[in-house]
Amino acid sequence: MQFRIKLKVQTKREWVEAVLADFNAFLQDHADCERKASAMALSFVAKYPNRLEIIPELIDTSVEELEHFRDVYEIMQRRGIRLSHEIPQDLYMKKLLETCRSGREERFMDRLLLASLVETRGAERFKLLYEALEEGELKDFYHRLWASEARHGEIFVKMALNYFDEPHVYDRLNEMNAEEGNILDNLPIRPALH
């Protein structure tokens, strides 16, 4: 059984160039994304408290994402960058959420698979940054994050397989993967994680 997702659309080189051209803006967005990722993992616990098999891993994931936020924030402090007063709307996430079905069970599955795709996209982009950055603190940091996000991309698929049969999970994941690639291709490139 394969848990790692092969994204249908690869990030364009222009994205890396946009991030490197305004790394401070990227760090602000990255911090916002880590805060949201931590909250998202806990939101599964709040919405699905009866899903006992996955609650411990959701809590661990939330804590790990919060630690990532702390680490990004420390980098921001050293660079004199402040957190955004408000977290701006993430059009990528908004459009991905619109692809989720509305039935309770269908939405539960889709939200898990969406989380997997978002984490996998984050891992892909952190790897690209790691490869593009010069030796030093940032390069080391994004190397660590790349491995962590790749693992998160897998755990949400594993969680879905606790409740849904394998063919159904992978068929839906394939559909959502294609939709994610289409969404990404139609968004403007900016110095942000998504």
Describe this structure in words.
The protein is mainly alpha-helical and 194 residues long. It has a single domain (15-185), classed as Up-down Bundle (Ferritin). It is 72% helix and 0% strand. It has 7 helices and no strands. The protein has helices at 13-21, 23-47, 55-78, 91-98, 104-132, 137-161, 166-185. Helix 5 (104-132) packs antiparallel against helix 6. The two termini are 28 Å apart. The mean pLDDT is 93.
The portion of residues assigned to helices is over 70%
Mean residue pLDDT = 93
Give the total of domains.
Answer: 1
Q: How far is it from the N-terminal to the C-terminal residue, by CA?
A: 28 Å
Number of strands: 0
Content of β-strand:
under 5%
Q: Can you tell me the CATH class?
A: Mainly Alpha
CATH superfamily: Ferritin, core subunit, four-helix bundle
What overall form do the CA principal axes indicate?
globular
What's a quick, concise take on this entry?
The protein has 194 residues and is mostly helical.
Notable features of this structure?
single chain; mainly alpha; globular; Ferritin; 194 residues
SSE layout and pairing:
Layout: H1 13-21, H2 23-47, H3 55-78, H4 91-98, H5 104-132, H6 137-161, H7 166-185
Helix pairs in contact: 2-3, 3-6, 5-6, 5-7
